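Hi there,

I know you've been waiting on this one. I reran it after we fixed the sequence typo, so this is the corrected version. Both the input and the resulting structure follow.
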Amino acid sequence: GGGGGGGAGGGGKKTPMRQVVDVIHRIQWDDDLPTERFAIGYLDRFVGIIEKPFAAFSWEDLASVDSRTVLAVPKHRFQYIKYEQEIVWDKRVQLDNFFGSRGDGTTIA
């Protein structure tokens, strides 16, 4: 449940950074954003950060996939998303140049 709307509060608060699921959904459903140009860096518990092409991931419910044959990673492990060679969303430094919610206001979506 829950998830408030709220309005535009003028208290000088930072805009909340858009979540990684918002970015993923936009890449999946926007025909102007070719999935082959995106990559995701995720945190592996043993190795550290690993980068794979967007298309390598399974977006099904994690409980329903065979993790031995499919790359199924919990979304909270995603650290950054790259478009071509540029990081456009990065949880580690609170950067969102995908939607423009954090950073210099640059957007690609």
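Quick highlight: Strands lie at 38-44, 48-53, 78-83, 86-90, 95-96.

Best,
R. S.
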